[in-house]
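#lab-general

N.A. 3:47 PM
ok so I finally got the sequence cleaned up, no stray characters, all 112 residues accounted for. can someone with queue access submit it? mine expired

B.Y. 3:52 PM
send it over

N.A. 3:53 PM
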Amino acid sequence: MNAGGHTMREALRQMLAVLEEERQALAGLDIDAITIAAQGKAVLCDALSGANDDDALDEECRGMIAAARSLNETNRQIRNLVAANVSARLDALTGSPRLYAAGAYAVAGRGA
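B.Y. 4:20 PM
back already:
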């Protein structure tokens, strides 16, 4: 196996590990870990971006790519649920849903 394939395989393994860490960070609402995972994903995406040749990918790499896409989608859904939950809690605490909605400032300015 050539060095490029080995590098891609290792980067994909690292990506899977980072995506799992991100999922755990999202579930635990650990902002520091979420930030670290996002930075790790960005670095790995840059490393993988040069390897676009699908013909050079073996089945193991294709499987890891599919797994990474699936994990990333799961993490996106978890993030959306967390964001909706935080938004609902803020609305409940402030008693004013959509405090930062479009036009809120215009309405507030008319009352002054």
